[in-house]
Write a structure and sequence with these properties.
By secondary structure, the protein is mainly beta. It is 9% helix and 37% strand.
């Protein structure tokens, strides 16, 4: 996971004001031709949220209705109850957590409140889904903010992406460098993780940020970790493990967890249904892998 937020804040203070994340700062370090950039969809802070310790987004899966209770996507390691252990799954747990909803410019326009943690885990992936006490139509009509669409398609290698942090009000621009067959960090192992190109140098507090594909404008992953010190498979220093068990350490490189699989596990009324055909999210009774 990204370093604890307190540590990230201390690092910023030590480094000095010149390196502090600036509001609405877009680190657009991609080298694609300007013609290609012109075709990309504009990505801003619309629909993103700030948690007490992380970032997140109001997401709308395919097939949902305007009246369905809205969902907030973040990381499993951002749960207010603490990080789930390997093999642990949280399902339909009551929650009253609040989220600061941002508009396109990154200004807070409302405080949203959860009714429950619909789903959370750090096994195979690193996600949390909160159900809110209000629907998509109510959020849009009251605050002029539309939810981000959740893609049902796997992101492609080389595609342009933006990591949008509601906590820092900062946007990182890079590309999908590739995929880690397994990403191991401490006691946790994640499958088929997105590896960024170096321009997405995310920091503590960006955990849970939506990763938006600039071609479609849809969420394709959720930002969650990076190798900070070059260590091998330790906390805050994930390593990649291939199909043959070979380990690769990429110091300074950051990662996200794909989200297209979530769409197969959401049924009528935005309810999590782990028994749906095609749903491969870990179930509460499942041991860690």
């Amino acid at each position: 996971m990204k370093k604890p937020l307190v540590a990230a804040l201390m690092a910023v203070l030590v480094a000095g004001a010149g390196t502090a994340p600036a509001a609405a700062l877009d680190h657009d370090a991609t080298s694609a031709p300007s013609k290609a950039k012109a075709k990309a969809r504009a990505v801003d802070f619309t629909g993103t949220v700030a948690l007490s310790n992380c970032s997140g987004s109001v997401i709308r899966p395919p097939g949902s209705t305007a009246q369905d209770p809205a969902l907030v996507l973040s990381n499993g390691h951002c749960l207010e109850s603490g990080m789930p252990g390997a093999g642990e799954v949280v399902l339909d747990k009551p929650s009253s957590r609040t989220f600061s909803l941002l508009n396109s410019s990154g200004s807070k326009v409302a405080t949203l409140r959860a009714t429950k943690v619909s789903y959370a885990t750090m096994t195979d992936t690193d996600i949390s889904l909160y159900e809110l006490n209000t629907g998509y139509d109510a959020i849009e009509s009251s605050y002029g903010v539309r939810a981000l669409e959740l893609s049902a398609t796997r992101p492609a290698q080389g595609s342009a992406i933006k990591v949008v942090s509601g906590y820092w009000k900062r946007i990182y621009s890079c590309n999908v460098d590739g995929f880690a067959y397994r990403l191991r960090e401490g006691e946790w192992t994640w499958k088929d993780s997105v590896r960024y190109t170096p321009a997405c140098d995310t920091i503590g507090g960006t955990s849970g940020s939506p990763v938006v594909d600039t071609a479609s404008g849809k969420v394709v992953a959720v930002n969650n970790t990076g190798n900070e010190d070059g260590e091998r498979c330790t906390d805050n220093n994930p390593c990649e493990v291939d199909q043959n068990g070979a380990v690769t350490v990429r110091e300074g490189i950051n990662y996200a967890q794909q989200t297209y699989g979530i769409t197969q596990c959401i049924g009528t009324g935005n309810k999590i249904d782990l028994g749906r055909p095609g749903c491969e999210l870990p179930k509460p009774s499942r041991a860690g892998s």
